[in-house]
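queue> holo job accepted (fe (ii) ion)
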Amino acid sequence: MWSIMVLLSLVLSINVDVSNGGVTSVYVRNPEPSIDMPLEAFPSPPGFNAPEQVHITQGDQVGRSVIISWVTPIKPNPNFVRYWEKGHHKHMARAITTTYRYYNYSSGFIHHATIRRLKYDTLYYYALGHGSVTRRFSFKTPPPVGPDVPYTFGVIGDLGQTYDSNQTIEHTVSNPKGQAVLFVGDLSYADHYPFHDSRRWDTWARFVEKSTAYQPWIWTAGNHELDLAPEIEENVPFKPFMQRYHVPYMASQSTSPLWYSIKRASAHIIVLSSYSAYGKYTPQYRWLEGELQRVDRSETPWLIVLLHSPWYNSNNYHYMEGESMRVMFESWFVQSKVDVVFSGHVHSYERSERVSNVQYNITNGLSVPAKDPSAPIYITVGDGGNIEGLANNFTEPQPRYSAFREASFGHAILDIRNRTHAHYTWHRNQDSEPVAADSLWLYNRYYYPEEENTGASTMV
Ligand SMILES: [Fe+2]
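queue> job finished
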């Protein structure tokens, strides 16, 4: 009996020792399925050939330019945008107009107009269409890039177009502080349907318009953007996505819209493609190598990376899918003191400790992530609410690198205050927007590399 108790206590103590990762939230979301809103929920706006699916993104490296994109369903014209400041005369910019075919689908006329030389920190109005079918929108340009410029980003991933997705968007839009959205990939989930029904790209763009027409969304490509379907002879990767969503990749010396960077306020944001080649000598590898050299922390103290497939994920869904990219680039991120990496892909929420796993060399056995003050925090927000449902099967015990995890839908807010501090929060859809289910003061790795209170103090 005594020996059994000793053995039991030993087992228990081992359990405590190995399972002292962070917090697995006790919040349990109702496990109802995620159902797409019907196609009819998002009809074209009224009026002949009315402009629709309006979205904007940053159009240059520093925020003085905006790409305005929209679709006209029937005719290519008018293909220009008028824009103005209140009380000032109107300017006009003409769009590049494209169409594409995907199996038996023909797109509307997709327009991309880049408007340039805007004033910083200024409200602009813009109008699309003409006559009775004119639609008006507005956006505010960011302040000039600088080291102590506050700025607030929303962060969304894996959104789709379910009723849960709708909650995520409504919450994000209701947040009065959000000024731009960092989107970490997997937009419409059109590929969930037979023949990758591209009508779902149209409904998705109409669905998110209430946000994307007014705030720039910074786009990252996920696996659902690949749209590869060799059985119907659709073999061009990212075809609908790249036709519909333009980004300012050439401004950051990139050769592909799938990886690029922007500067916005006090942040330098690097976007990577988990589904493009990144091995040594590839274009993405060489671009990232140079790009990290170009980051100037005296200008942009906050270094943020967006990529779709997470490197640190303790969910059985998509476990280790980001591993090969981590092996390629993690040491660079540590050397460059990346502050935070946002990912999606896993339909759940997770935040890591500051860890790295860069010592491993095949023979030395050093394969356990170690605390590292120069490492990023890795945040997975693949919890936008798409049709594939929640990833609610975490690995057990919770690994030490995992500070907080919860299988709920939601979004995050990154509220940069100055060069040293940013307040980060995660909001589950079931709560009202002011409630943060997870929060953290992030300390800048370059200017204030102190240890944060991550909520789990057992990492050694
Ligand atoms: Fe994904």
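queue> Helices lie at 2-18, 163-174, 199-212, 239-244, 283-294, 323-335.
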